[in-house]
Design a protein that fits this description.
This protein is an alpha+beta fold. It is built from 5 helices and 6 strands; from the N terminus they run H-H-E-E-E-H-H-H-E-E-E. The longest helix is centred in the N-terminal third of the chain and has 15 residues. The protein is globular, with a radius of gyration of 16 Å.
Length: 221
């Protein structure tokens, strides 16, 4: 089992950015912050190295990004634990000194300079969706220890919230009636439980496909 990333890992990555940082450097840190705060797997942010098993329908779209007070949101179309193929809406909020929104805002501005025609949210300077090996090469520069890997973001985010004393609360899916019972996200539970949790740092709701989403970068603080 891989070790969880710490908050210090993420803060080190954030402070490593300078005004002259490249687009790819900003992309990596934005993905790291989003994965850590959003309890996301690397497979939900990047595509596999093997072209034969890539499914771009799983990639988040640029048009799904929204700015919310103190954070931002994006849609995850669907993933391997999404039994109903409804997708998730992921909202990431600031927590204490950890403020991922400024990094994400900077990435979006840089991303739009690379391409306004590419529909996908996460794109490299070559206008392609980042692969797992692309992300891991940069993670190794941040943390050479091979005990850390892609799943370390999700584990680290959950660990950080537990250390802060956060308790996951059940939220009511918009299409559901009574609250559905799930175990704590800090326990070893099926991944589909993710769709019905909201926490102080991350709020994850089923996508309401009838409501269009628009980016309002000015509202991200």
């Amino acid at each position: 089992r891989k070790l969880p990333l710490s908050r210090n890992h993420v803060l080190t990555a954030i402070t490593s950015l300078t005004p002259s940082s490249t687009h790819d450097d900003i992309l990596f840190v934005a993905m790291l912050c989003t994965g850590f705060a959003g309890l996301m797997r690397l497979g939900e942010l990047a595509v596999p190295d093997d072209r034969n098993i890539r499914d771009y329908r799983k990639c988040s779209l640029r048009s799904s990004v929204i700015g919310i007070d103190g954070g931002y949101g994006l849609d995850l179309p669907y993933h391997k634990g999404d039994c109903f193929f409804e997708g998730n809406r992921i909202r990431i909020l600031r927590r204490g000194t950890f403020k991922p929104a400024p990094v994400f805002e900077r990435y979006v501005a840089s991303r739009d300079n690379v391409s306004r025609m590419n529909p996908y949210l996460w794109i490299t300077s070559k206008n392609t969706v980042p692969t797992r090996s692309w992300f891991m090469a940069r993670l190794r520069q941040l943390e050479p220890d091979t005990q850390f890997a892609g799943q370390s973001m999700r584990a680290g985010g959950a660990t950080a919230m537990a250390e802060d004393g956060s308790r996951p609360t059940l939220s009511r899916p918009r299409s559901a009636g009574p609250l559905t019972h799930f175990k704590s996200i800090f326990a070893r539970t099926p991944s589909y439980s993710k769709r019905s949790y909201s926490t102080a740092t991350t709020i994850i709701d089923p996508i309401c496909r009838s409501q269009p989403l628009h980016l309002n970068i000015s509202s991200i603080k």
